[in-house]
Amino acid sequence: MRLITRGDLDGLACAVIITHHEKISEFLLVHPQDVSDRKIDVHNDDIIANLPYHPDCGLWFDHHLLTSPNRRPAGAFKGRYEQAPSAALLVWEHFGKDPRFASLVEETNRLDSAQLTEDDVLRPQDYILLGYTIDSRTGLGAFEVYFRQCVEWVKTLPIAEVLEQPMVADRVQRLQKEDRNFRQALLESSRLDGNVVFTDFRSEVLLPIGNRFLVYTLFPKANVSVRVHWGPDREFVVVAVAHSIFDRTCKTAVGELMAQYGGGGHRGAGSAPIPTSEADDKIAEIVAALKSVG
Ligand SMILES: [Mn+2]
């Protein structure tokens, strides 16, 4: 029996709980699009968690919005699908709510649904901090080894001891350094325009990376962010828009706004690829729309 999941804290928590209850011979970490596009070979005893539905699987758990009809199960399926703060919560409930995983699930809920405090962004602790280290940008091969290790540690050790493992501590250190650089880059490339914090990373040779919520701690007066950077080979400009997780007053349905520009998303976040020649006009339009709706 294999577990097919996503490489984030929610996927990790699902893996911890599922492997505690079922004999899993192999983990597969995959991108959600590859499941939707049916690029993954799925067997009838596979468990899929925190990913879109695949008709060949044996058990399925997910909580993400089903955006395309091809992701919808045609009839009955085994497992659980509903809107919830995390897939781990559904998995935990399905397997009888083992109290030893209660705080793992609670913290996974908070991170996966971005119900975070400023401290969770600036001084993250425990499972939230571990969650930030689960990041596939460091190269997939090494990442899979790390993910598997974390599953074993989280199953057997208290979270304080998980964070003391050299592999984890090393990633935490790297994250902290990355966040310092990211903060600098954000401050240099961002400005507040009414309720909008606008960040233009087009002049950066390498796209700065770091905690995506950091911008809302630096610009607490903004209720929405617009971030602009180059797409691959500078063929187009990517505009990414997201509601602030601290000031939740933004009234714009972001996915719908982005759909007008050939992109998409959900209510709180979305993005669109904009042709380079039209970029400045379209970006100005998007910012104006966000300011007028408020
Ligand atoms: Mn999730």
The CA-CA distance between the termini, in Å, is 50 Å
Give the total of domains. Answer: 2
- The overall pLDDT, averaged over residues, is 93
Shape: globular
The helix tally amounts to 12
**Unreliable parts:** none
Largest sheet: 6 strands, mixed
Strand segment count: 11
Strand order of the largest sheet: 6-7-8-9-11-10
> Which series of helices and strands comes N to C?
EHEHEEEHHHHHHHEEHEEHEEH
The percentage helix is 40-55%
Structural features:
2 domains; 294 residues; binds manganese (II) ion; single chain; five-stranded parallel β-sheet; Diaminopimelate Epimerase, Chain A, domain 1; six-stranded mixed β-sheet; 12 helices; alpha/beta; 11 strands
How is this fold's topology laid out?
Blueprint lengths: L1 E4 L3 H13 L4 E4 L2 H5 L10 E3 L9 E4 L16 E3 L5 H8 L7 H11 L5 H5 L3 H8 L6 H17 L2 H6 L1 H24 E4 L2 E5 L13 H5 L5 E7 L5 E8 L10 H6 L4 E2 L3 E7 L3 H15 L1
Parallel strand pairs: 1-2, 1-3, 3-4, 4-5, 7-8
Antiparallel strand pairs: 6-7, 8-9, 9-11, 10-11
Helix pairs in contact: 1-3, 1-7, 3-4, 6-9
The structure holds manganese (II) ion (MN).
Outline the structure in words.
The chain is α/β, with parallel strands linked by helices. It has two domains: 2-164, no CATH class; 189-293, Diaminopimelate Epimerase, Chain A, domain 1. It is 42% helix and 17% strand. It contains twelve helices and eleven strands. It has helices spanning 9-21, 32-36, 87-94, 102-112, 118-122, 126-133, 140-156, 159-164, 166-189, 214-218, 254-259, 279-293; strands spanning 2-5, 26-29, 47-49, 59-62, 79-81, 190-193, 196-200, 224-230, 236-243, 264-265, 269-275. The strands form two sheets. It has a six-stranded mixed beta sheet with strand order 6-7-8-9-11-10. Helix 1 (9-21) packs parallel to helix 3. The longest helix has 24 residues, at 166-189. The radius of gyration is 20 Å and the shape is globular. Manganese (II) ion (MN) binds at residues 10, 50, 63, 86-87, 112.
